[in-house]
Amino acid sequence: MTDTTANPDGAPVTWFEIGTDDPAGARSFYGPLLGWTFVEQGPYTMVVTAAGPEGGIRDTDTPQPEGTPRTFSIPYAQVADVAATCAKVEELGGKVLVQATTTPDGLVYAHIVDPAGNDLGLWTPPPA
Question: Theoretical Cys-Cys bridge with 98: which of 5, 67, 72, 86, CB 3.0 to 4.6 Å?
């Protein structure tokens, strides 16, 4: 049985990110394919759908935290504490690829791998 006492609602998947060293190519592919529109924010591009911002395209040709692969596609689960969740990842046999990283606006994220080798992102929004 799963212990849900720490978070009875679970950690929802609320974001996705595509990493590429060719963000213009990604926009040219995904825009027509899926009807996405984009808002560029420096090396990061927000992906906007009818539901609003739902993901991003990261330009990996710019400086990245250690462990960031050059290309990736990854769902993100929203958690209360990224660093604490990273510690639990290792307890449970997973690996942290990118440690908890705080962006200039206060958003915190990390990349992990589960024991079977699947990538997952963790994130906490910036303080209100």
Answer: 67
